[in-house]
Design the sequence.
């Protein structure tokens, strides 16, 4: 309510809002907070029951996980970065031209757009098995390229919808200016519209990167060791180190850091993408 | 726009270069897919590090998650994966993976036989073909808190409570016994005694911790119970004998303990790591567990709550005395691998006295010959007991090494844990398992 | 001097080629493959099939009672989780909206859970729910509650709770976006008319953002229906098959029981059913939105 409440009522309502915010923020973020704290505890501190709340922090878990050389955490992080980044870029370059054609010429908007948005809703396991068998035949199992193709596929629906929404808001006069100079559609697309779409392209990249980074099922089925993303790699830690929660917590903190940081910039676009998608789709 | 284009161009080039470089550098090295978790994993890492110092071809270790380890390994080898050259073998899965592995009968030379006993090699042999070198002998012990059991044996008021509880729950007044002499009634009575919700004076919250997650390895632990009453998969004529007194009694013991809350309520999701956490934090009086855990618990400073206060012995006895399931884990060669020579070189190294002595010292449990054992076992109780227990109490189920053994264990896990969870009655569970065994062995 | 519109259209058509070819390869081809595999007898030892199997795989797949259990579970899971998520999100929008309007960066804090991979979230919960070393039972014990959140009676609630706690922010941000896009004049007009607080929220805002509510309910239900990640790492579908969702069921069918034909047939059936339901579901949502 923007309308201002009066006097004392206003203060207590305000305080209530703050309290509610803090309580909710704490509850939903509890696992993240606990994991980060655990990553700084010593093994003895962790094994104590009941859990202790005040402790002297240590970096030993991070050192063990990053530098001891027993683990491949850095490789998994590299894999995730390449897979998520590559997939997002690929999705952008496939979707942007298509979105332009849909908006400016109405090509494909009646069948391709709904089809693509439907993809987002299907249980991925449906595709996982035939993709596994297909990839095995062409040798794409456990490869960066294979995983990039998968993450691009997952990112295309959101990319397409966001691009369509954005391009629709670009006045047709912009195109006209290019046309007057005799430019072809291709030139208009890449030299005019694309540069103007920088904000949405960045938003799409961020959202796709996060979603791709967090992909689990395909990573589980389609990789063994070379292209294993960090979401799977972190699960190796749980059982590999048995009761060593400290190392596991450190590994997980490092694994969630990139998407969480990127998420701080990308979240406003989530609302827009979902709402515009349904209206236009 | 051009800037972006060229940026992307260089990224793509960089990407392909990186991929190429990485694949080139990896060409002469081999990958070893081994069993994750526990001291055996750390011991293997040390052995591999040592190997890498002295060999041209480097060995790199790879681990899957325990939960779907064998599923993934099967899917990968069936797909012709070359991602690992040396892979895990297990007595109960030899039949299943045999079509995808390279026989290594010719590698069993004098050196190997001086490291491993013939009996140990046999546990890695299927229909006459040797598929792996045995790196770990796995069986089960009863891990218990000496301080608590000793107290129980000497404290008169505790014994009075013990008698009361046993007469209430088991129908007869019982006296505590030394752990190595226990039968399953003693196990149950003691578990009830040490559970605070039943006995408020108990020094620990739980008498025992059972591993009841829907995981086939947990059934292997439980099998000792059924076997101790004479349970088996089949009889000498090949009839399926799951529907037996032995199986029902064994299943009931776990169910009763769970219902009486003598094991944590979360036990239905527990396996190796959680059970160790429970015992290691001092909250549980005793439990049956894989032999591998011992080397972990004796590490100084890691488990302050139980340090110096626990030991191991044989599982409790049934009508046929104490029994334990056992099997060996080993390493063999992926038939799809392009690096057969390098893989064989690595296995040869593993088969040397030097390698296995190191493995033993670092916490592994290799089934080595007596000379090595005597020289290096030190005060590792698990190693000293291993040979004797396997010989005296070891039980391999009739059919437990066949190709379908793996699927059988998985099916048992699904049905028996459903029974323990209260989702299925015992008769249905037994019928389901019997049907499955009949179908498997008929193939 | 401008180009012929027809020529331009021809040029633009090409822009779709990349996307269409790509999707045909990544999605069209596997769908056909599903179809082909489902009619053959495939095993891990012979991936190209040992012979035509007719409808055998479909019969086996649909005749398995465990399939219907898993479907029922996914349905229940989806419904319960969605109701809670949307309900809590609505509550949050109404109560926190003014605060967030003044300090928008606070929203970021509420968004963190959806940035974490659900699988890793599951592992984090495994850590903190451990009866002996986890902080949740630890805290609750101090308060006098002795809980075992992974026991057979609690596990179903626990996995739903984890889903709700992670994805309510998702529903929240969508509803918040809808709320914040309402014109300011509306508030002023309402204030003049004396409609304030709860009455304002319920009778004016709620109907106006109802399209967003329908959309978010629809999306979250679909996402919860196909849940896999966090349940897989936490319980593996167990105990027994108590928490086996349809995705976990198909996964296990393929990887654990090596029932290739059956799992593929099932995948194809699910594909067709999902597409059909989606088609009608979307129509429903769009119609409601337009009314």
Sequence:
């Amino acid at each position: 309510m923007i309308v201002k409440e009066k006097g004392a009522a206003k203060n207590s309502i305000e305080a209530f809002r703050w309290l509610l915010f803090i309580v909710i923020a704490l509850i939903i973020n509890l696992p993240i907070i606990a994991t980060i704290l655990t990553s700084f505890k010593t093994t003895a501190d962790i094994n104590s029951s009941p859990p202790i709340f005040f402790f002297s922090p240590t970096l030993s878990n991070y050192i063990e996980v990053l530098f001891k050389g027993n683990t491949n955490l850095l490789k998994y992080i590299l894999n995730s970065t390449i897979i998520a980044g590559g997939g997002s870029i690929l999705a952008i370059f496939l979707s942007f031209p298509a979105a332009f054609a849909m908006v400016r010429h109405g090509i494909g908007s009646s069948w391709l757009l709904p089809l693509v948005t439907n993809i987002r809703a299907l249980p991925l396991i449906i595709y996982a098995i035939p993709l596994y068998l297909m990839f095995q035949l062409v040798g794409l199992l456990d490869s960066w390229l294979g995983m990039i193709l998968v993450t691009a596929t997952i990112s295309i629906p959101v990319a397409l919808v966001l691009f369509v929404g954005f391009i629709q808001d670009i006045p047709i006069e912009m195109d006209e200016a290019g046309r007057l100079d005799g430019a072809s559609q291709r030139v208009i697309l890449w030299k005019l519209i694309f540069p103007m779409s920088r904000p949405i392209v960045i938003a799409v990249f961020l959202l796709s990167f996060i979603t791709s980074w967090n992909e689990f099922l395909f990573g589980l089925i389609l990789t063994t060791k070379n292209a294993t993303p960090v979401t799977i790699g972190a699960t190796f830690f749980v059982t590999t180190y048995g009761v060593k929660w400290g190392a596991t917590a450190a590994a997980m903190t490092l694994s969630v850091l990139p998407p969480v940081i990127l998420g701080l910039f990308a979240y406003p676009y989530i609302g827009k993408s979902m709402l515009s998608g349904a209206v236009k789709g | 726009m051009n800037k972006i284009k060229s940026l992307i161009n260089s990224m793509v080039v960089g990407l392909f270069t990186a991929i190429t470089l990485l694949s080139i550098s990896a060409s002469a090295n081999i990958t070893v897919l081994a069993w994750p978790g526990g001291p055996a994993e750390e011991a293997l890492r040390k052995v591999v590090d040592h190997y890498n110092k002295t060999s041209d071809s480097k060995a790199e270790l790879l681990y899957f998650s325990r939960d779907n380890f064998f599923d993934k390994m099967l899917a990968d080898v069936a797909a012709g994966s070359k991602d690992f050259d040396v892979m895990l073998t297990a007595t109960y899965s030899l039949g299943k993976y045999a079509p995808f592995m390279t026989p290594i009968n010719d590698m069993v030379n004098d050196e190997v036989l001086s490291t491993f006993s013939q009996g140990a090699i046999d546990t890695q042999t299927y229909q006459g073909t040797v598929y792996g070198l045995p790196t770990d002998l796995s069986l089960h012990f009863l891990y218990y808190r000496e301080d608590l059991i000793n107290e129980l044996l000497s404290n008169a008021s505790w014994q009075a409570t013990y008698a009361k509880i046993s007469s209430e729950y088991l129908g007869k007044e019982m006296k505590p016994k030394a752990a190595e002499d226990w039968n399953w009634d003693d196990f149950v009575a003691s578990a009830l005694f040490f559970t605070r919700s039943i006995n408020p004076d108990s020094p620990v919250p739980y008498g025992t911790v059972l591993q009841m997650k829907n995981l086939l390895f947990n059934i292997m632990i439980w099998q000792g119970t059924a076997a101790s009453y004479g349970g088996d998969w089949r009889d000498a004529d090949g009839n399926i004998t799951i529907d037996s007194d032995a199986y029902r009694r064994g299943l009931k013991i776990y169910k009763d303990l769970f219902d009486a809350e003598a094991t944590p309520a979360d036990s239905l999701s527990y396996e190796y790591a959680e059970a160790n956490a429970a015992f290691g934090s001092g909250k549980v009086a005793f439990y049956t567990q894989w032999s591998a855990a011992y080397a972990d618990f004796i590490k100084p400073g890691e488990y302050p709550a139980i340090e110096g206060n626990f030991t191991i012995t044989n599982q409790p006895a049934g009508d046929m005395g104490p029994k334990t399931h056992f099997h060996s884990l080993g390493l063999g060669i992926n038939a799809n691998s392009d690096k057969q020579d390098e893989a064989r070189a690595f296995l040869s190294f593993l088969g040397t006295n030097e390698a296995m002595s190191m493995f033993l010292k670092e916490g592994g449990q290799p089934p080595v010959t007596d000379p090595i054992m005597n020289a290096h076992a030190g005060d590792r109780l698990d190693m000293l007991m291993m040979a004797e227990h396997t010989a005296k109490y070891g039980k391999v189920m009739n059919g437990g090494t066949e190709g379908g053994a793996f699927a059988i264990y998985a099916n048992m896990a699904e049905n028996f844990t459903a029974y323990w969870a209260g989702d299925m009655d015992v008769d249905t569970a037994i019928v389901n398992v019997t049907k499955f065994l009949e179908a498997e062995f008929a193939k | 001097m401008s180009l012929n519109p027809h020529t331009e259209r021809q040029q633009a058509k090409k822009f779709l080629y990349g996307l269409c070819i790509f999707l045909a390869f990544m999605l069209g081809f596997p769908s056909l493959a599903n179809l082909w595999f489902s009619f053959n007898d495939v095993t891990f030892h012979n991936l190209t099939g040992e012979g035509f199997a007719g409808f055998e795989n479909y019969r086996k797949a649909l005749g398995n009672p465990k399939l219907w259990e898993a479907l029922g579970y996914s349905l229940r899971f989806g419904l319960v989780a969605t109701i809670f998520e949307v309900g809590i999100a609505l509550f949050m929008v109404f109560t926190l909206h003014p605060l967030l309007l003044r300090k928008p960066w606070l929203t970021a804090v509420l968004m963190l859970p959806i940035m974490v991979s659900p699988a890793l979230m599951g592992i984090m919960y495994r850590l903190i729910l451990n009866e002996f070393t986890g902080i949740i039972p630890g805290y609750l014990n101090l308060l006098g509650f002795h809980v075992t959140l992974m026991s057979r009676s609690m596990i179903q609630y626990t996995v739903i709770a984890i889903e709700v706690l992670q994805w309510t922010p998702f529903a929240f941000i969508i509803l918040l976006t809808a709320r914040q896009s309402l014109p300011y004049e509306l508030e002023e007009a309402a204030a003049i008319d004396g409609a304030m607080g709860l009455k304002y929220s319920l009778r004016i805002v709620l109907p106006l953002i109802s399209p967003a509510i329908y959309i978010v309910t629809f999306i979250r239900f679909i996402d919860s229906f196909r849940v896999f990640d966090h349940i897989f790492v936490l319980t593996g579908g167990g105990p027994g098959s108590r928490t086996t969702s349809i995705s976990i069921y198909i996964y296990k069918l393929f990887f654990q029981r090596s029932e290739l034909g059956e799992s593929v047939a099932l995948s194809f059936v699910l594909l067709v059913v999902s597409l059909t339901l989606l088609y009608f579901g979307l129509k429903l949502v769009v119609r409601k939105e337009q009314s």
The interface with chain C takes residues 67-68, 71-72, 74-75, 78-79, 99, 212-215, 264-266, 268-269, 274, 277-278, 281, 283, 407, 410, 414-415, 417-418, 420-424 of chain B (CB under 8 Å). The first strand of chain B starts at residue 30 and ends at 33. The longest helix of chain B spans residues 2-25.
